[in-house]
Amino acid sequence: MKNITYTGRINFEAYGVTIGVQVSDTNAIDKIKKILPFNSRPLSADAETEYTFSLIWGEDGTREDVLYREDEEVARRIDPERLVALLDTCIRMTIGEFAPHHIFIHAGVVGWKGEALIFPAKSYSGKTTLVAELIKHGAEYYSDEYAVIDESGLVHPYPKDLSLRKEGEFQQTDRSVEELGGVQAIQPIPVRLVFLTEFDPEADWDPKILPRGQGLMQLLPHALGLRYNPEFVFKLLNLIAERAIIASSKRGEASDFASRILHFA
Amino acid sequence: MNSSRNPLARREGLVVQEMPDEVLVYDTSTNKAHCLNKTAAFVWKSCDGSHTVNDIAGLMEKEFGANVPDDLVWLAIDQLGKDDLLEASEAVKTANGISRREVIRRIGIASVIALPVVASLVAPSSALAAVSCGCVNPTVCGAMIGCPSLVNCNGLGICAP
Q1: What's the farthest any 2 CA atoms get from each other in chain B?
Q2: Would you tell me how many other CB atoms lie within 10 Å of the CB of residue A47?
Q3: Residue A124, SS3 per DSSP
C-alpha cells in the first residue's frame, strides 16, 4: 500500500463491531455518511477500531480510485460511485461476519402474525422481488438482505430501500417499503418459518418440511459468521430450529408464491 | 483389546451440535460442515477407542432394539474416516474402501435401521473474501481464484452472480 495522506476519517460502531473509514479526499466523507449501516452510532475520530477501510479517491482523475481493507486491496479503477457501493457491501459484510452477539443470515425477512418468515437466498436470486410481493400481501417488512438474529433467537429489523426493476426496464430503482404500501417493522420477533426456495418458472408448489439437521445444513452457507465463529452460529441456528419449521420448495412467480407461503405459515 | 486398533472419534478442532436424531459437526481445520444421521451419529459417539466394531454393533442393538450386523458399523466407520471425523486406527484402515453397495446387499434393504449417512458441505469462503473479487468486466473474473463467479461481473463490480 502506497504512502497516502488521509484527510478525513469516520469511525462508527454497529452490532458490536467497530469500523473506521479513512479517505484521501474529504469530498468522500459525505458519501460515506450516506451508507453508514442501520443501527450504527458514530465514534470519535481518534477512537480505536477493529477494522479499517481506506478509500483513495481522486475525483480529478490524477490518481487511481482504490479501496483497501486493512492493507489488502479490494478493488481499483472502478468509478467512485461503484467504489462507495462496494465499500457499503464491505461494511455490511464485516458487521455480518464479526458481530459478537448476533448472527446475520443472507435472507429476505418479513413478519406475519407476529412471527418471522425467513427466506435464505444468495444475492440476485429474486429475494427482493419475493419480499416486495409478501409486503403487498400484508406482511411487515424486516429486511431484504439479512435476517439479524440475537442470542435469544429473535429476528431484528434490518431495513433498507428495496431495489426493484420495473417491468421492461433494466435499471433498478430504490423504493421504500411505504411506496409499496407496506409497513416497516420495529419489534424483534421469534421465527415461525425458515423457507428455502429458488425460482423455477416450471415449479409446482410442493413444500417439504426438512429434518432439523438437514434444514440447518442448508441454512449454514447463508450464515455470514460461519467460518469466523461456527460455535456461535451453530448455537443460534439450533435455537431457531427448536422453535421454527424449516421447509423447502421451488417457486414459480413471486405473487402466487407469496399468497401460498402466507397461507402455509 | 489394544485401543489403537479400535475406532476413536476425533474431537480436536471440531464444533459439535447435537440434535434429537442428528449431529452437526463443523471441522475448523477444513471449514467443512457434516450432518450425521442417527445411525452415523450413534457409531461416531460410540467410537471411544475402547469399543471394537463388534461391541458397537452390540450397543446399537440395545439402543435400536434390532439386529445390527457388523457391516453396518464398518460402513459408518468408512464414511466417518473419509470425512476425517475419526483418528487414524486399524479399524479405519480396515474399513477403507468398503463397498456401500455390497454392504447393502449383505444387510438387505429391509433393515429396520437406516444406513449411516454423513452429508457434508464446505463453508463458503469468507464473505469479505468474496468482496475482494473486484472486477470491471467478466473477463477479469476468469482469472480470479475462489470468487463466487468465474464468468459474471455483477453490478457492484464483484465476480459474483
Answers
A1: 64
A2: 13
A3: coil
Q: Which band of pLDDT confidence, cut at 50, 70 and 90, is reported for residue A12?
A: very high
pLDDT of B127 reads 63
* β-sheet bridge partners, residue B158: B134
Arithmetic mean of pLDDT, B91-108: 76
Point out which residues pair with A214 in neighbouring strands.
Answer: none
Q: Please state, in angstroms and rounded to a whole number, the distance separating the CA atoms of residues B154 and B149.
A: 9
B23 to chain A: which residues are within 8 Å by CB? 213
Tell me how close the Cα of B66 comes to any Cα of chain A, in angstroms: 23
Residues of B in contact with A75 (CB under 8 A): 132, 134-135, 157
Q: Decide if A213 and B23 are in contact by the 8 Å CB cutoff.
A: yes
Distance CA A257, CA A133 (A): 9
pLDDT top residue among B148 and B78: B78
- The per-residue pLDDT of chain A, averaged, comes to 89
Which one is predicted more confidently, A47 or B95?
A: A47
Task: Quickly list DSSP for chain B.
Answer: --GGGS-BB--TTEEEEE-SS-EEEEETTTTEEEEE-HHHHHHHHH-BSS--HHHHHHHHHHHHTS---HHHHHHHHHHHHHTT-B---HHHHHHTT--HHHHHHHH-TT-SSPPP-EEEEEPPP-HHHHHT-B-SSHHHHTT-SS-S-SS-B-TTSBB--
Average pLDDT over residues B44-73: 93
- What's the Rg (C-alpha) of chain A? 20
In this complex, the residue of B23, B28, B124 whose CB is nearest that of residue A221 is B124
CA A21 to chain centre: 20
Mean predicted confidence (pLDDT) in A139-143: 96
Instruction: Report residue A39 as a C-alpha cell.
Output: 443501527
The whole-angstrom separation of Cα A55 and Cα A8 is 10
Distance from C-alpha of B62 to C-alpha of B64, rounded to nearest angstrom: 6
- The closest alpha carbon to B136, from A86, A141, A13, belongs to A86
Residue of B nearest to A124 (CA): B161
* Tens digit of each residue's pLDDT (9 = 90 or more) over A224-258: 999 999 999 999 999 999 999 999 998 888 888 89
In this complex, the residue of B128, B135, B155 whose CB is nearest that of residue A97 is B128
